[in-house]
Structures are given as structure tokens and as C-alpha cells.
Amino acid sequence: SCRDYPLPALCSGVVVVDMLFAVTTLSPNTPPSSSSSSFSSDDDDENDDEENKGKKKTKLTFIKKKNLSRRISHINLMRRAQSLGDLLLTTTTNTNKKNKKKKKKNEQISYQTLAIVILSSLLIFSLLVIKQQNKNRKIRDIDRKLHHTISALATRAQWSLEEVSNGEKTKWWKKYNHPQQHDSSQNLPLVLLDEYGLPTLQQQCERKVEWPTVAFMTSSFLCESFLEVLPKTLRVHTFPLNTRAQMKYNSLRKLPTFNRGYDVEDYLVKWLSDGPFSINRNNRVKTLTEKTEIAYLLPIQPYLDRVSSFPFTDGRESSESGLKSAVQYAKKVNPSLWKQSKGRRVIVSVHDFGTELATKIFPDDDENDIDDIYDTSASSSAMLSPVSFSSSSSSTSSSLINTTHFIVSNSEIGVENAPFDAQKDVAVIPSLSFYLPREAVSRGLVDLSHFLRNEEEYASVGLELPKLEAERNIRLMFRGNNRGPLREKVFRYLIENGSPEDSIETTGVASPQAYMSLMEHSKYCLHVRGTRVMSPRLIELMLFGCVPVIVADAYELPLAWFLDWTKFSIRVPESEYENIHAYVEKANWRELHSNLGRVISFFVYHKDKPIIGDAFYATSLALLNKLEQRASTPTTPPTNNNNNNRAKGEE
Fold first, then answer.
1. DSSP helix/strand/coil, 597
2. pTM here?
3. Cα gap 560→564, rounded to integer Å
4. What are the CA-CA distances from residue 32 to residues 38, 184, 253, 423, 545 (Å)?
5. How far apart are CA 502 and CA 505, in angstroms?
């Protein structure tokens, strides 16, 4: 019974002590076996003694009773021992059951604890793995960015070398560009061409050149807008930046960044701040009239802010911080001017972020003020038919994105996180190259027959006749990457179903000479929406006389408010990319190519300073058009206490 007891030694001790106590009580002197032997011996020795027979008999009876009593006591003892054993066994059984339950419960608790430990370990391991993956991802991102930077620097070096080696032979135009000289035979002023060899707007207007404009725009009205209205009407006041921001931008401009698209941002901010329309330049405050339209420029540069955090982040936080800091500083320096500027503010953001930086900024405290709301009672001097601007609520009307005109490259309509409003925002001409236009003209790739009408006029300015269609043996060309789901589908289809006449590669690698040679020998060049809709390639392929085939539905094309893109490009809906070849076959390349030559001077920037009719002036005219679409409100010139306020703000 004691084997199953939790403490068998104690159990055995209790049983033995109890039995010894019982035996000692019943027979303290002689054991039962000894009594039985003594009785047998006495019975044999008293045979002859009759007297003792009775005594013996009586004694025998007593002994038998005594033995019987002992046996009964022994039986009772055994029963008692058995009862004790049963009790111990019952106790042991109950104890075992309790122990089993407790053990089972402990096992359950142990299993739960083990499960918790395992899950915790897995969680910690997962966090470590994720952290390591994030670390590896960051390392890969940094490595990728550094790789792209090295590639960009190598590309810049290649283009610089190309420009240095071939720049001298393309400076032919300077000897023809003297305003005092005249051609006696042709009686033409020799100031016909810009620094690239493209005809100036003034000369085109004198010769009554017709541009492929939209239906309600005429070439004569366009000439008047550029030559008369824009210089007299638009003025730009620039908000000051704090000293830290100025030092940061001045330092970052010296970095060898190379992006013909993003560099447009610095160019536009520079010439809007201190260019032909600057309100404080040459004391132009005195020349303001009732017809003057004042734009208030917030001279942030999101691209340079992004560069400042390179390569550790994507630059979004840095760009947003730069914008918020500039807004706070402008409000602090001159609160009344900031309030006055509502609805006329201008921000240049030539980067993928576009207007996204301003979607969550509410800089105005006067949420019930509706001076930024546009309606159909716009000024009668607006160059385009007025368009209604409205806001759904006073709170949204006070957001920076609704009180500001954005000049952006990411002019994609319908994007929620970076909304572009074609009724108030301006699409940027996204290519800043001072070499490619000159190279394209010197190679005879720009058709100037609309301006130089015969071979003699070409020769008078040192140009050869433009190359014809027969010299372009590539039907459809693309060089670049295939980032973006649309590009992947389009280029996969074109490569699998292409023609020997096509040249489609998505390696993204091409030397300057190879890139220019491809554009020179191609009739049509693809512009397909990637991660964003814009690309500097669009302008560059136009320069080289390659008709663009645009596959980007939501792209608000630059200068589409006065130029008709259908007359010098092909636009293919994204859903019909498999029919690109059919669109190309139906097109009249010669006509499209000729119209490219007519409009290309609107799409180039100039290095020394902007000239009337170039990309800077076209962008400024677009901004003036947006300002004039506003509801007519009195325009109050900025006060002259900006310097005092600036000093106060810098303190």
C-alpha cells in the first residue's frame, strides 16, 4: 500500500509502529508458539496424577481460550492493518488524483508559458529580421542612390566633354548676331536668331509666322500677349527666406547634381525672383497700375531640399520642412502682406513631389475669408475664357494648395496625393539644356522653313537646309528605363511585336553621341508615362525633329493652353498601346515635323538671360493667364517696410 504513497518511508513507519504496539499489548512476555509447546510438555508429564487432570483440563481450556483470544486479536490486528492500508491507499489515490490534476494544470500552464515564450521569441526574431531587412533595404536604397549619383556624375562628365569638344563648331551664329549690321541684298536685320540659332519671337511676329495654336488663339494675339501685355502687366514680389535657408540653397547649388528636368526649378526661381518681372528691380513699384497683376513668389526649392537629405531619405520630410519654414517666416516678417497675397501666391516645384508638399498645410488663420475663391466674374482682360474655381468649404479654401499657383513638372490630372489643377496651376517645360538645342540646330534637324523661306536665307545666317524624311531610317525609337507598370506592358508588347524598323531598348544606358544619333535618325520617338508623366526626353526629342508619340492620358502637356499638340505630336490612349504602330502609320510625318520647327523656340531656356518668347517667358505668360482668371480684386502694391520686417524676422 505504501508504494503508491507520496512519502513511502513515512507510510511504512506508521504501519510498523502501529503493528508493534498491538503485538506488545496482546503478548508482552511469550509469543503464541512458545505457549503451545509448553502445553504439550505439561500434558505428557502428568499422566499418573489424576488430581491434576481437572486442573490441566481447566488450564487447557483457559489456554485454548487464550489462544483463541490471541488469534482473534491477531485477526483484528490484521484487519486494523488492512483498514489502515486501505485508508493509506485511499489517501494515496486521492492525493495522486489531486497531483495528476495539479500536474495536468501545471502542464497546461507550462504549455501556455512555453507558447508565450515561443511566440515572444518569434516576435523578437521577426522584429530583428524586419529591422535587419529595413537596414538592408536602407543600405540597398543608399547604394542604389549612390549608384545613380555616380551614373549621373558620369553622364554629366560625358555631356560636359561633349559640349567642350563640339561647342566651338556650333558657335557659328555669333558672327551673324550683330544688330548694327544688315544684309544689303536681303535687307534683313541680322538679329534674327537666338544663342542656339532659333528665330526670335520678335522676328517671327514681324514675318507673321503662323503657329499651330488652339482654336480660340490667334498668332497675332499671341504676339501681342508676349510683346506688349506680359512685360507691362506681370510683376513678381518675392517673399524673403531666412538666413539658414539662403545659406543652404547657396551651398547646394554648387553640388554637381545633374538632371535636365529638376534643374529647371532653380532657373525659374532665380529669374522670377530677380528677372524681368521682379517688382523691386529698377524701382518698379512706381510703375504699377490698376491692370498690374502681382504674383507673390515663395522662393523655396523642394529639389534642393531633397538633395540636402541625400542619400539617407527620399527627401520628402526635408522638402515639407523647408516649405513650412518658409511659410512661417513669410508670415512672421510681414503678416499683412502674407494675408494680401492669398490667392496670388506662387510656388515652383519641379520634382516628383509636385503639389503633394502643400496638401496638409493650412497657413491662413482667416478660414472664413474667401478671397482665394475663383468665379466666372473674372477680369475681362483675361486671355482665356474665365473658368470657375471653387472650394467646397472654408477650411479647404484656406489650405496652401488652394491659395497658391503651382508651377510644377508633375502636371498629372486626377492624382489625389499630388493634385494638379489645370485651371490655376502651370505645367513646366521640363528640360534645361544649353547644349542640345544648339547641337540640334547645327545638325540641321530643326525645320525652319516657316521662317527662312529659301536657300539664300538659310545661307545668310550660316545654316544648311534641314534634313529630310529619307535620312531618318528608324521608324519608332525609345531609350530609357521601363519603370512603371504602363511602360512594362508597352515595351514588352513592342519588343515582342516589333519591326526591324524600330529601336526599342529599356536599359537606360546611352552615351551622349549615341543618344543624339538615335534621335537624329528617328521619325517617331516614344514618350510613355513612367512613375511620373513628365520627362526631359519629351522636349529633347522634339528639338531633334523626332515627332513625339505620347502615351500618358492624364498628362497636362506644357503650353497646351495655347498650342495644339495634335498638330506636332501623336497622342495614343493608354488602353490602345497595342495600336501604336497603327497610329504611326496613319500620321503625316512631314507635316508634324514641320510644325515642330514652328513651336520649338517656345520650349527652350536661355543661359545668359531669358528672351521674349522662350520657355521662361511662355511659363510667365501662363502664370499671368491664371492670375487674370481670378475674380477681380484690387491690387495693392507691397509696402516698402519689407526690409525692416526682414530684419525683425531674422532676429
1. helix
2. 0.71
3. 6
4. 10, 165, 122, 127, 136
5. 10
